[in-house]
Structures are given as structure tokens and as C-alpha cells.
Amino acid sequence: MRSKIISAIGAGALFLVLGCGTTSGTRTMTSIEREAVDVPARFEAPAGVDSSGKACKSPLTDPRNGTKIILKTSFSEGMGDYVVPAGMYGVGDRELLRINCATGEVVGVVRR
């Protein structure tokens, strides 16, 4: 009887461990919904931050007016989805602004 209980506990523990795996890195990029509006030619990385390479930086700044956007998700393809202030760049409440992290250029508006 005792061995059956121990086996059941072991099987339950194994199930819990396997069921609690992470999904980090498996999120895929959603497709572009539409073009953004009134965007700068490129967003700029913070002063003193190395902006070379394709790694996404945060926050990025609109050099025209100082508006800051915050990285929500980055992708291995060198793209990042950023949260923007309400009403900016044609991005709605449930949307993000996709940026090419190597260049700072806007790719488009995507669903959250």
C-alpha cells in the first residue's frame, strides 16, 4: 500500500514539473496590421547606450518631440514591439508599434 502511495506522489510530482515549463522564446511575431502615422524617420536609443547591432533598446525616443516608447517584446529577428503613449502614431489601445531594432525605423502597427 505504501509503495502505491509513493508511486502516485512521484507520478503527480512529475506531472506538475513537466506541466510548469516556460514558453520563453516561443512567441512568434504577429503580422503587421497597418502602417503607423506621423512617425519619425527613426527612433533613437538612450544617450550612452551602444546602438550598434540588432538588440532592442528601451526606452526609445522620438527625436522630434521627445516622446518615449517602451519595449514590450523583442524577437530574434531583430524586431521589437513597443508600447506607445495613448493616441500616438495611430496605435490603438490593444496595439503595439513594431520597430526594426537595428535601425530604429518603424515597421508598422501590430496587435498586442
What does it look like?
The longest helix has 18 residues, at 2-19. The protein starts with a helix and ends with a strand. The protein is an alpha+beta fold. The radius of gyration is 21 Å and the shape is globular. Strands 1-6-5-4-3-2 form a six-stranded antiparallel β-sheet, with no helix packed on it. Helices cover 16% and strands 26% of the residues. A hairpin with a 6-residue loop joins strand 2 and strand 3.
What structural category characterises the helix and strand content?
alpha+beta
Mean pLDDT: 82
Distance between the termini: 52 Å
Q: Going across the biggest sheet, name each strand in turn.
A: 1-6-5-4-3-2
Structure summary:
This protein is α+β, with helices and mostly antiparallel strands. 16% of the residues lie in helices and 26% in strands.
